[in-house]
């Protein structure tokens, strides 16, 4: 359920955030392009008719004789054939300063052909129109730079504020979308728990009654069948109750600091005799005194499920390796066995409820595909992660606690 909520939240959050980001980027690009085109148009239309209008804002007419008034300052330098400055005109209220004159000389010395150059409006304060042997017009774009920078800053602030709003909106939309699913899922879990409890009592009566029935050769076979199936049903009900309990989890305030090393060692010792019966050896490499804040009972169940699973799926005369160690800020439990590979397309499915890779064999051994689902729920309840790797007849289950 948490995975569904996270996927829904991140999908909604990403879509809305991407829309806001694209919108603001397009707005800034359009603002920049508008200023850029305005400067380019005005520089293109400048000619020597403006040289006779010193200290005045020039008036430019477009192709339709519509007057265009430029709202920024520019300066004109009259050049001789050798590109020496013979006159300079300021078309604004500001007089020339050494910086503008120095900029003009630098432009002239670096250019051999006539051209229009519009520098990056976010970082540069000038653009120019240079015609070799005739004139150089420098436009002061500092006002445009300031204007574009303010627009960029405002849009960044808007994005930051919008992301906060989008976060809370996404949370509410996610809650609204997943509420029906969560309610359905909760009812399903309650049904499994309630049905299992209701079945457990009559099943216990049936099993007790079977033990009291006098058997003879005629009905012995049927009674044995009933007893066998009752045992299977009892095992299934127990697993369903365990699954329901693991899905609900326990109050994390009840977790206590436990010696994980001793828990694992104890489980290995318990399963060692079971492994020996099928010619399988368990080797352990357990770092001493690794502590973990957890439910001892639940962690004990996880270790039991994984070792039992390894024993059931190991080749005869093979070795199961149980490793527990620390890696930086992580506690890692690895259980490796040699057996038939888990198909790659089933690696993500084996933690699903009731999923069984080999259904016929699992049915014969009273396995219902619930153990690994229970283990995953418990690990998730402890903010951990469980993974499986299977290749070259070697399967490793890795549990990581942070």
Q: Which stretches are low in confidence, meaning pLDDT under 50 for 5 or more residues running? A: 48-69, 359-366
Oligomer: single chain
Q: Count the strands?
A: 14
Overall 3D form: elongated
Q: CATH superfamily name of the largest domain?
A: Histidine kinase-like ATPase, C-terminal domain
Strand content: 15-25%
Query: What count of domains describes the coordinates?
Result: 2
- The computed structural class is alpha+beta
Mean of residue pLDDT values: 79
Sheet of most strands:
5 strands, antiparallel
What pattern of helices and strands is seen along the backbone? HEEEEHEEEHHEHEEHEEHHEE
Termini separation (Å)?
A: 21 Å
CATH fold title of the largest domain: Heat Shock Protein 90
Radius of gyration: 39 Å
CATH uppermost class of the largest domain: Alpha Beta
**CATH architecture assignment name of the largest domain:** 2-Layer Sandwich
Query: Order of strands in the sheet with the most strands?
Result: 4-3-7-6-5
The helix content, as a percent range, equals 40-55%
Describe this structure in words.
- The strands form four sheets. A five-stranded antiparallel beta sheet has the order 4-3-7-6-5, sandwiched between helices. The protein has a five-stranded mixed beta sheet with strand order 9-11-12-14-13, covered by helices on one side. It has a two-stranded antiparallel sheet with strand order 1-2.
- 52% of the residues lie in helices and 20% in strands.
- The longest helix is centred in the middle third of the chain and has 71 residues, at 142-212.
- It is elongated and about 130 Å long.
- It folds into two domains: 2-146; 252-401, 2-Layer Sandwich (Heat Shock Protein 90).
- α5 (260-277) runs parallel beside α6.
- It has 402 residues and is α+β, with helices and mostly antiparallel strands.
């Amino acid at each position: 359920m948490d995975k569904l909520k996270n996927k829904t939240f991140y999908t909604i959050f990403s879509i809305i955030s991407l829309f806001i980001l694209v919108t603001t980027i397009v707005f800034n690009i359009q603002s920049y392009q508008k200023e850029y085109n305005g400067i380019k148009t005005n520089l293109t239309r400048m000619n020597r008719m403006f040289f006779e209008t010193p200290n005045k804002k020039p008036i430019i007419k477009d192709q339709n004789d519509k007057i265009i008034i430029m709202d920024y300052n520019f300066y004109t330098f009259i050049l001789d054939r050798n590109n020496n400055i013979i006159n300079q005109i300021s078309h604004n209220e500001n007089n020339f300063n050494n910086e503008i004159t120095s900029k003009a000389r630098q432009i002239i010395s670096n250019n051999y052909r006539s051209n229009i150059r519009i520098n990056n409006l976010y970082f540069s304060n000038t653009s120019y129109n240079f015609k070799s042997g005739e004139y150089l017009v420098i436009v002061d774009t500092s006002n445009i730079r300031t204007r574009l920078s303010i627009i960029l800053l405002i849009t960044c602030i808007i994005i930051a504020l919008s992301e906060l709003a989008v976060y809370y909106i996404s949370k509410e939309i996610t809650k609204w979308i997943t509420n029906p699913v969560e309610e359905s899922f909760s009812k399903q879990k309650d049904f499994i728990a309630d049905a299992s409890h209701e079945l457990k009592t009559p099943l216990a009566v049936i099993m007790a009654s079977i033990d009291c029935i006098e058997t003879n050769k005629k009905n012995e076979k049927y009674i044995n069948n009933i007893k066998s199936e009752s045992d299977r049903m009892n095992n299934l009900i127990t697993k369903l109750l365990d699954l329901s309990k693991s899905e609900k989890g326990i109050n994390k305030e009840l977790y206590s600091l436990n010696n994980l090393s001793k828990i694992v060692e104890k489980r290995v010792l318990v399963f060692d005799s079971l492994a020996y019966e099928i010619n399988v050896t368990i080797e352990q490499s357990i770092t001493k005194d690794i502590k973990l804040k957890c439910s001892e009972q639940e962690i004990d169940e996880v270790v039991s499920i994984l070792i039992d699973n390894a024993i059931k799926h190991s080749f005869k005369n093979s070795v199961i390796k149980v490793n527990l160690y620390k890696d930086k800020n992580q506690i890692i439990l690895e259980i490796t066995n040699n057996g038939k590979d888990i198909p790659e397309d089933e690696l993500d499915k084996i933690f699903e409820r009731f999923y069984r890779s080999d259904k016929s064999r699992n049915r014969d051994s009273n396995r219902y595909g619930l153990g690994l689902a229970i283990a995953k729920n418990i690990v998730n309840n402890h903010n951990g992660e469980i993974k499986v790797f299977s290749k070259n007849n070697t399967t490793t289950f890795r549990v990581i606690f942070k």
